[in-house]
Each structure stands twice: as C-alpha cells, then as structure tokens.
C-alpha cells in the first residue's frame, strides 16, 4: 500500500491542531472554521517554505512564533466573523509582521551595549549582531588607512612586507571556502600585485586570507580586543601552549599534539573589491567576529536550523554558495528553500559583526577591504565544537571501515581514525581533552605540566 506523502500528513495534522478538534466535520459555511483552515494553510506554507522544508516547523516551535500565533488565533474573536477579505488581510499582516522581525541583523552601538547585554541578547542565544563604533583607539585605523579611506598599501609594504602570506585565487564564492589555488608569497609581493590589479594589469583576483598577523608581529599593537570578544579560550590555549607546553612536550619527546591547534585564530584579511569567501561555517564551529578597518563587506548568513537545506540530494556534499545556476543548482534541490531564510547585511568601516556558531555564511568585499577577525570558543559554544568532533570521528571511522580488519588491534584502528579526524578538523579527542582541561584550569598550569598522551 502506498503511504500518503509526509508533507500532506503534516499539513493535515496542523489543520487539525488549529481547528481544535481531532476529526472535525468541516462545515463549509462556518466562517470560524473557514478562517482557521485558511490560517492553517498559511502557517504551513510560510513555515515550511511551501512544503519544501517540513523540518523548519521545528524551528518555529523554538523561536517564539508559535506563541505569537496562539495569541493571534485567540486574541480577536470578533474578527472570526469578519468578511473573508478582512480575515485574509489580517492573516497576511500577521505573517509579514512576524517575518520582518526575523530577517534583520540588529545594529547596536558599542557605547550603548554593555557586555552583559551582549551575552544575554546575542552570545547565549547564538544570534548575530552588528556592533558600530568598535574600533575606538585602534592604531590600525590610523596607520593602515589613507586619508581618502583606502588601504594604505605603502605603509603595509614598508612595515610588514617581508611576512609570508597565502593569497587565494578567488573568482566567485562557488570556488569553495578557500577559493581556488593558494599562492605562497610575501605581503610585499601581494601589495605589488594589488597595485597592478588596480591599474587593470591583473585579471585573476587574489585574496589575502588568514594572515596570522598578531602571532607574527606581537609587538605591533594594531588593535584593542573589544570587550565582548575577550572570553576566548581558543586563542588563550594557543598562547599558553606557545609559552609553556611546546618546550615541555619537545623536551620529553611527546609529539602527540604536533598537528593540533598549531596556530592561533587571529587573522588579517585584505582583498580588492569583489573578492569573496565561499559558503562555510567557522572552524570547530567557533564564534567569529570581524571588523572592517577600511572598506565594506556584504555578509549573507543562514541560521543553523536550516543547514540541512544546503546539502545535495544524498545529504553528502554541501553547496559552495547560496546562489548556483545550471546543473550545479540541480544537485542541491533545497537551496531555494535555504535562500528564503538567509539574512543579508552590509558591514561598514569600524563595525564589528558577531557571527554565532554554526551559522553558514558567505562574504563579498564590496570595496577594497582590510579586516581583522578572530575565531573563538568559550562556555557558550563549546558544545558546538564537541558535537562537530563527534560527527568528524564517526565520519573518519566510516571512511576507513574496510581497514579495521587489517589493523592488529582496536587501538591501532582508533589511532588511525583520530589521526584522520585531526587532519580534517584540527583536533583529535586527546587534544580536545587537553584544551578542555586548560580551559577549566584558571592558571593554565595543568595542561602545560601534564601531557595527557604521555600519562
Ligand atoms: O572576510 C571574509 O572574507 C571572511 C571572514 C569570515 O568568514 C569569518 O570571519 O567568519
């Protein structure tokens, strides 16, 4: 026997919930019933992207829209008996009012946003915010910017030109997170390329990404960390390892964590107009913040409850962009539904965007743009990192399942799995444990003194 389609079943269930009786006899002429059925149809269509995304109903159980709907249904009994047109109008208003609440990233000024407010309103509920006025007193804003607001290429080349950087070829966001090929060069060579590009002599776009500037030029205080982003266990762990663990582990021959968190998560990005970063969620599902020293960026962000819409029809591969055409689009049948939940915002100079954990995003530089960003973990998002590690572990094990029998022991197989997991996401369980121990130990001494691998 054929099963009725799931989408239809869910729509019927919702109808019954709204109509208020389990198996109601629908009386065609009853205006209350008619209005409620129309409402059921609107709710279903709006909250599931016209049935293409039934799972999105779950998101609305969490975000307050169910309460708003209840209020709407019960508030005005008189309107139940209004004419059909009036009832339809009021339903439309309800939806447009509700959806407009959900599509903007709030803007706050640093002078009017306390740390506690930031935590309660954005960091704890994992919601994005744009914070204006975030660069008070930054040396970078004086020295790295020309008087007409452009990138001060001369200063950068003169002071930091010898640094080695990666420039990523980026034609469009659909080239993947890192774009195309990565070129190893000096910052000075990149500045030369930038100048030639501005004179129309270079067609291929190059984007300087993930420059570990602080690590390399620790004496040059380019910026002051905004207080909202200071509770940062990831970079503290890196700094602690730099100063103590590295020498301890090399002196006792311990090499277990060589491949893990080898670098910090504090970056400078520099790219001309039209450079992009493709669709991704941040490393270890960390939070990130990013501030424009000069230029403007367009951010497009997808709330995490819609991540499943980004995968291909087999649930394996993720789309490289929110916008795809031709046969690429055909491979990702739910991308159009995902786009309906995308939030877009333009970030100007001196503005800090807070990108919460698990929000997939793309970035396009609308002008020549120089930005500073950090990734970070703390008590509010550590569970995101842990969930990712568990998924990475399961995937790494599944990928080499056929090797299990050739391994001499379960431990040998597990070691292989952990190695691959670390290569894929930067951490294995042992390093994750060391990170957690360091994070909960106020002095940082425990992780520095005891190498878990050698215990
Ligand atoms: O600015 C960019 O191009 C990318 C930055 C980014 O993706 C982030 O900070 O998470």
Automatic annotation (TrEMBL):
UniProt xrefs under Pfam families: Cupin_8
Mind telling me which InterPro entries this protein's record contains? Answer: Cupin_8, JmjC_dom, JMJD6_ArgDemeth/LysHydrox
PROSITE patterns tied to this protein: JMJC
Question: Which superkingdom is the protein from?
Answer: Eukaryota
**Where in this chain does the record put each JmjC domain?**
214-393
Q: Where are the transmembrane segments?
A: none
Similarity annotation = Belongs to the JARID1 histone demethylase family.
What this protein is called in its record is JmjC domain-containing protein
Q: Which organism is it from?
A: Coccomyxa subellipsoidea
Higher taxonomy: Eukaryota, Viridiplantae, Chlorophyta, core chlorophytes, Trebouxiophyceae
């Amino acid at each position: 026997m054929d099963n009725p389609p799931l989408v239809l079943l869910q729509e019927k269930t919702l109808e019954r919930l709204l109509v208020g009786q389990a198996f109601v006899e629908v009386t065609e002429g009853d205006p209350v019933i008619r209005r409620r059925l129309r409402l059921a149809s609107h709710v279903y269509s709006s909250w599931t992207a016209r049935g293409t995304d039934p799972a999105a109903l779950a998101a609305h159980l969490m975000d307050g829209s169910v309460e708003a709907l209840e209020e709407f249904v019960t508030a005005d009994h008189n309107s139940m008996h209004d004419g059909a047109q009036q009832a339809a109008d009021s339903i439309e208003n309800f939806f447009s009012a509700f959806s407009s609440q959900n599509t903007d990233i709030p803007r706050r000024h640093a002078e009017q946003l306390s740390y506690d407010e930031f935590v309660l309103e954005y960091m704890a509920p994992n919601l994005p915010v744009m914070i204006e006025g975030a660069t008070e007193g930054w040396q970078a804003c004086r020295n790295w910017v020309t008087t007409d607001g452009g990138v001060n290429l001369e200063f950068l080349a003169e002071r930091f030109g010898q640094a080695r950087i990666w420039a990523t070829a980026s034609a469009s966001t659909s080239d993947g997170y890192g774009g195309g090929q990565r070129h190893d060069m000096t910052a000075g060579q990149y500045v030369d390329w930038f100048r030639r590009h501005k004179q129309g002599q270079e067609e291929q776009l190059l984007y300087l990404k993930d420059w570990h500037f602080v690590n390399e030029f620790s004496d040059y205080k380019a910026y002051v960390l905004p207080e909202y982003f200071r509770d940062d266990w990831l970079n503290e762990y890196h700094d602690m390892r730099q100063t103590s663990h590295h020498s301890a582990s090399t002196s006792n021959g311990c090499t277990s964590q060589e491949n893990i968190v080898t670098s910090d998560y504090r970056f400078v990005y520099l790219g001309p107009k039209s450079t992009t970063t493709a669709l991704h969620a941040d490393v270890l599902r960390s939070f990130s913040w990013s501030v424009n020293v000069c230029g403007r960026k367009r951010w497009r962000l997808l709330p995490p409850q819609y991540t499943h819409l980004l995968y291909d029809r087999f649930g394996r591969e993720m789309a490289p962009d929110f916008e795809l055409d031709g046969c690429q689009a055909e491979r990702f049948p739910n991308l159009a539904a995902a786009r309906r939940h995308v939030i877009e915002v333009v970030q100007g100079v001196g503005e800090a965007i807070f990108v919460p954990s698990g929000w997939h995003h793309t970035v396009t530089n609308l002008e020549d743009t120089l930005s500073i960003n950090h990734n970070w973990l703390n008590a509010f998002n550590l569970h995101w990192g842990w969930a990712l590690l568990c998924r990475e572990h399961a995937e790494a094990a599944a990928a080499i399942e056929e090797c299990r029998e050739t391994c001499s022991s379960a431990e040998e197989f597990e070691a292989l799995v952990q190695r691959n997991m670390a290569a894929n996401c930067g951490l294995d369980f042992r390093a994750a444990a060391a990170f957690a121990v360091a994070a909960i130990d106020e002095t940082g001494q425990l992780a520095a003194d005891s190498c878990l691998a050698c215990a």
